[in-house]
Design goal:
Rossmann fold; 18% strand; 205 residues; alpha/beta; 6 strands; binds NADP nicotinamide-adenine-dinucleotide phosphate; 6-stranded parallel beta sheet
Length: 205
Protein backbone atom coordinates (compact mmCIF):
# COMPACT_ATOMS: atom_id res chain seq x y z
CA UNK A 1 0.00 0.00 0.00
CA UNK A 2 1.47 3.38 -0.95
CA UNK A 3 1.64 6.20 1.55
CA UNK A 4 -0.71 9.15 1.30
CA UNK A 5 1.30 12.14 0.02
CA UNK A 6 0.25 15.30 1.82
CA UNK A 7 1.50 18.87 1.47
CA UNK A 8 1.33 21.26 4.41
CA UNK A 9 1.35 24.84 3.16
CA UNK A 10 2.57 26.90 6.12
CA UNK A 11 2.40 30.68 6.37
CA UNK A 12 0.63 33.61 7.96
CA UNK A 13 -1.69 34.02 4.94
CA UNK A 14 -2.40 37.65 5.77
CA UNK A 15 -4.09 37.43 3.35
CA UNK A 16 -3.92 34.36 1.10
CA UNK A 17 -3.28 35.42 -2.52
CA UNK A 18 -3.15 33.86 -5.99
CA UNK A 19 0.64 33.37 -5.74
CA UNK A 20 0.09 30.94 -2.83
CA UNK A 21 -2.47 28.96 -4.86
CA UNK A 22 -0.22 28.79 -7.92
CA UNK A 23 2.74 27.67 -5.79
CA UNK A 24 0.69 24.96 -4.04
CA UNK A 25 -0.59 23.63 -7.38
CA UNK A 26 2.92 23.54 -8.81
CA UNK A 27 4.39 21.68 -5.83
CA UNK A 28 1.42 19.28 -5.82
CA UNK A 29 2.02 18.56 -9.52
CA UNK A 30 5.79 18.07 -9.19
CA UNK A 31 5.52 15.84 -6.09
CA UNK A 32 2.31 14.08 -7.05
CA UNK A 33 0.60 15.11 -3.82
CA UNK A 34 -2.81 13.68 -2.97
CA UNK A 35 -3.83 16.80 -1.07
CA UNK A 36 -2.52 20.06 0.34
CA UNK A 37 -3.49 21.42 3.77
CA UNK A 38 -3.08 25.17 4.20
CA UNK A 39 -2.02 25.78 7.78
CA UNK A 40 -2.17 29.41 8.92
CA UNK A 41 0.10 30.21 11.87
CA UNK A 42 -1.53 31.57 14.99
CA UNK A 43 1.48 33.66 15.88
CA UNK A 44 4.89 33.47 14.19
CA UNK A 45 7.33 32.44 16.97
CA UNK A 46 10.23 34.53 15.69
CA UNK A 47 8.72 37.92 15.08
CA UNK A 48 7.19 40.76 16.95
CA UNK A 49 4.73 41.12 14.11
CA UNK A 50 2.84 44.17 13.03
CA UNK A 51 -0.76 43.45 14.03
CA UNK A 52 -1.82 40.41 12.08
CA UNK A 53 -5.42 40.17 10.92
CA UNK A 54 -7.34 37.99 13.40
CA UNK A 55 -6.85 34.26 12.84
CA UNK A 56 -10.60 33.83 12.27
CA UNK A 57 -10.45 36.25 9.31
CA UNK A 58 -7.31 34.63 7.84
CA UNK A 59 -8.97 31.20 8.11
CA UNK A 60 -12.24 32.49 6.56
CA UNK A 61 -10.33 33.97 3.60
CA UNK A 62 -8.45 30.69 3.10
CA UNK A 63 -11.73 28.77 3.09
CA UNK A 64 -13.09 31.09 0.39
CA UNK A 65 -9.88 30.84 -1.66
CA UNK A 66 -9.72 27.02 -1.52
CA UNK A 67 -13.43 26.28 -2.01
CA UNK A 68 -13.09 25.35 -5.71
CA UNK A 69 -10.21 22.88 -5.37
CA UNK A 70 -11.14 19.55 -3.77
CA UNK A 71 -7.46 18.70 -3.18
CA UNK A 72 -6.94 21.86 -1.09
CA UNK A 73 -8.25 22.50 2.42
CA UNK A 74 -7.52 24.50 5.56
CA UNK A 75 -6.27 23.00 8.78
CA UNK A 76 -6.62 25.02 11.97
CA UNK A 77 -4.26 22.94 14.12
CA UNK A 78 -1.93 25.92 14.70
CA UNK A 79 -4.76 28.37 15.36
CA UNK A 80 -6.53 25.93 17.70
CA UNK A 81 -3.32 25.27 19.67
CA UNK A 82 -2.70 29.04 19.97
CA UNK A 83 0.52 30.65 21.21
CA UNK A 84 3.72 30.64 19.16
CA UNK A 85 3.60 28.39 16.12
CA UNK A 86 6.39 25.83 15.79
CA UNK A 87 6.38 23.47 12.81
CA UNK A 88 7.24 20.48 15.00
CA UNK A 89 3.90 21.00 16.80
CA UNK A 90 2.09 21.36 13.45
CA UNK A 91 3.53 18.02 12.36
CA UNK A 92 2.71 16.30 15.65
CA UNK A 93 -0.91 17.48 15.55
CA UNK A 94 -1.40 16.57 11.90
CA UNK A 95 0.22 13.15 12.42
CA UNK A 96 -2.26 12.49 15.24
CA UNK A 97 -5.19 13.60 13.08
CA UNK A 98 -4.11 11.50 10.10
CA UNK A 99 -3.34 8.41 12.16
CA UNK A 100 -7.11 8.09 12.64
CA UNK A 101 -8.04 9.03 9.08
CA UNK A 102 -5.62 6.87 7.07
CA UNK A 103 -5.23 3.81 9.25
CA UNK A 104 -2.20 1.70 8.40
CA UNK A 105 -1.53 3.62 5.22
CA UNK A 106 1.17 6.01 6.41
CA UNK A 107 1.67 9.59 5.33
CA UNK A 108 4.58 11.22 3.52
CA UNK A 109 4.64 14.87 4.60
CA UNK A 110 5.84 17.74 2.41
CA UNK A 111 6.07 21.06 4.26
CA UNK A 112 5.83 23.96 1.82
CA UNK A 113 6.53 27.57 2.62
CA UNK A 114 8.39 30.66 1.41
CA UNK A 115 12.08 30.29 0.54
CA UNK A 116 12.85 33.25 2.90
CA UNK A 117 11.47 31.25 5.79
CA UNK A 118 13.33 28.08 4.72
CA UNK A 119 16.62 30.02 4.46
CA UNK A 120 16.44 30.46 8.26
CA UNK A 121 15.56 26.78 8.85
CA UNK A 122 18.67 26.29 11.02
CA UNK A 123 17.03 28.52 13.67
CA UNK A 124 13.82 26.44 13.80
CA UNK A 125 12.97 24.15 16.72
CA UNK A 126 13.86 20.41 16.44
CA UNK A 127 15.40 20.62 12.97
CA UNK A 128 16.83 17.06 13.04
CA UNK A 129 13.46 15.60 13.92
CA UNK A 130 11.68 17.79 11.37
CA UNK A 131 13.97 16.57 8.59
CA UNK A 132 13.49 12.94 9.60
CA UNK A 133 9.70 13.30 9.43
CA UNK A 134 9.03 15.55 6.44
CA UNK A 135 10.49 16.96 3.28
CA UNK A 136 10.72 20.75 3.09
CA UNK A 137 10.09 22.85 0.03
CA UNK A 138 10.84 26.56 -0.07
CA UNK A 139 9.14 28.38 -2.90
CA UNK A 140 10.42 31.66 -4.19
CA UNK A 141 9.14 34.40 -6.39
CA UNK A 142 10.97 34.84 -9.70
CA UNK A 143 14.05 37.03 -9.34
CA UNK A 144 14.60 36.29 -5.64
CA UNK A 145 17.80 34.60 -4.50
CA UNK A 146 17.37 31.03 -3.30
CA UNK A 147 19.62 29.89 -0.45
CA UNK A 148 19.67 26.44 1.14
CA UNK A 149 20.16 26.46 4.92
CA UNK A 150 23.35 24.82 6.19
CA UNK A 151 22.00 21.96 8.28
CA UNK A 152 22.61 18.25 8.43
CA UNK A 153 20.02 16.51 6.31
CA UNK A 154 19.70 19.46 3.93
CA UNK A 155 19.12 16.95 1.11
CA UNK A 156 15.55 16.75 2.48
CA UNK A 157 15.13 20.47 1.70
CA UNK A 158 14.37 21.67 -1.78
CA UNK A 159 14.11 25.18 -3.16
CA UNK A 160 11.80 25.84 -6.03
CA UNK A 161 11.53 28.95 -8.15
CA UNK A 162 7.83 28.81 -8.93
CA UNK A 163 6.83 30.77 -11.94
CA UNK A 164 3.88 32.20 -10.10
CA UNK A 165 2.51 35.67 -10.31
CA UNK A 166 4.82 38.07 -8.45
CA UNK A 167 2.35 38.79 -5.66
CA UNK A 168 3.03 39.35 -1.97
CA UNK A 169 0.67 39.69 0.97
CA UNK A 170 2.45 42.98 1.79
CA UNK A 171 1.45 44.39 -1.59
CA UNK A 172 -2.14 43.18 -1.14
CA UNK A 173 -2.36 44.82 2.32
CA UNK A 174 -0.94 48.10 0.97
CA UNK A 175 -3.49 48.24 -1.85
CA UNK A 176 -6.32 47.30 0.53
CA UNK A 177 -5.24 50.01 2.98
CA UNK A 178 -5.95 52.59 0.27
CA UNK A 179 -9.15 50.90 -0.83
CA UNK A 180 -7.57 50.04 -4.25
CA UNK A 181 -8.66 47.10 -6.39
CA UNK A 182 -7.18 43.67 -5.60
CA UNK A 183 -8.30 42.16 -8.92
CA UNK A 184 -5.77 39.64 -10.26
CA UNK A 185 -4.04 39.41 -6.87
CA UNK A 186 -6.54 37.53 -4.69
CA UNK A 187 -9.63 35.44 -5.57
CA UNK A 188 -12.65 37.70 -5.97
CA UNK A 189 -14.40 36.15 -2.93
CA UNK A 190 -11.35 37.07 -0.82
CA UNK A 191 -11.40 40.65 -2.14
CA UNK A 192 -15.08 40.87 -1.26
CA UNK A 193 -14.37 39.58 2.27
CA UNK A 194 -11.58 42.13 2.77
CA UNK A 195 -13.85 44.98 1.68
CA UNK A 196 -16.88 43.80 3.68
CA UNK A 197 -14.83 43.35 6.87
CA UNK A 198 -12.75 46.51 6.42
CA UNK A 199 -9.53 44.52 6.76
CA UNK A 200 -6.19 46.34 6.33
CA UNK A 201 -7.90 49.74 5.95
CA UNK A 202 -5.80 52.67 7.11
CA UNK A 203 -7.69 55.02 9.46
CA UNK A 204 -7.65 57.82 6.82
CA UNK A 205 -9.05 55.76 3.90
P1 LIG B 1 5.49 34.59 6.56
O1 LIG B 1 6.02 35.76 7.33
O2 LIG B 1 4.06 34.54 6.21
O3 LIG B 1 6.32 34.43 5.20
C1 LIG B 1 7.69 34.71 4.98
C2 LIG B 1 7.91 34.82 3.48
O4 LIG B 1 7.56 33.61 2.79
C3 LIG B 1 7.06 35.90 2.81
O5 LIG B 1 7.78 36.41 1.70
C4 LIG B 1 5.83 35.14 2.35
O6 LIG B 1 5.14 35.77 1.30
C5 LIG B 1 6.42 33.82 1.92
N1 LIG B 1 5.49 32.71 2.17
C6 LIG B 1 4.94 32.39 3.37
N2 LIG B 1 4.22 31.27 3.27
C7 LIG B 1 4.31 30.88 1.99
C8 LIG B 1 3.80 29.77 1.28
N3 LIG B 1 3.10 28.81 1.92
N4 LIG B 1 4.07 29.69 -0.04
C9 LIG B 1 4.82 30.63 -0.65
N5 LIG B 1 5.36 31.70 -0.03
C10 LIG B 1 5.10 31.81 1.27
O7 LIG B 1 5.76 33.25 7.31
P2 LIG B 1 6.85 32.82 8.38
O8 LIG B 1 6.50 33.38 9.71
O9 LIG B 1 8.22 33.06 7.84
O10 LIG B 1 6.54 31.25 8.48
C11 LIG B 1 6.36 30.43 7.34
C12 LIG B 1 6.09 29.01 7.84
O11 LIG B 1 7.26 28.47 8.42
C13 LIG B 1 5.00 28.91 8.91
O12 LIG B 1 4.27 27.75 8.74
C14 LIG B 1 5.79 28.88 10.21
O13 LIG B 1 5.12 28.24 11.27
C15 LIG B 1 7.01 28.10 9.76
N6 LIG B 1 8.15 28.46 10.62
C16 LIG B 1 8.42 27.65 11.67
C17 LIG B 1 9.44 27.97 12.54
C18 LIG B 1 9.75 27.06 13.72
O14 LIG B 1 9.16 26.00 13.80
N7 LIG B 1 10.60 27.45 14.61
C19 LIG B 1 10.19 29.13 12.31
C20 LIG B 1 9.88 29.94 11.23
C21 LIG B 1 8.84 29.60 10.38
P3 LIG B 1 3.65 36.29 1.55
O15 LIG B 1 3.78 37.34 2.65
O16 LIG B 1 3.24 36.83 0.24
O17 LIG B 1 2.89 35.10 2.03
Amino acid sequence: MTAHRVGIMGGTFDPVHLGHLIAAREVARIHDLDEVLFSPVYQPWHKQMRGLAPAADRVAMLELALADDPAFSVTTVDVDRGGDTYTIDTLNDLDALFAGKHLGEGVDWFFITGADAIAAFDSWKSTDELLSRARFIGVSRPGHDLRLPEVQGAERIELLDVDSADISSTEVRELASRGDSLAGLVPSAVEQYIVEHGLYRSPQS
